[in-house]
Amino acid sequence: MLNSKYISIKPIIERLYSDNGYEHDLPFGDILEWTADAVNLIGYPGTYIKKIKGHKDYPPFDITKFRAQLPCDFHILHQIAVDGFPVYPSNDSFHHLMDGDCCGIDALGTVDGDKFVDNFGNVFNTDLGTKYRNAPITYTLNNNWLTLSVEKGKVCMSYWAFPTDDEGLPLIPDDVSWKEFIRRYLSYKLDYIEWRKGVLPDKVYEDSKQEYMWYAGQATNKAKGLDLSEMESLKNQILRLRPIVDEYNTYYKSKGFPEQRSIK
Question: How far is the C-alpha of 212 from the C-alpha of 258, rounded, in Å?
Answer without folding.
Answer: 41
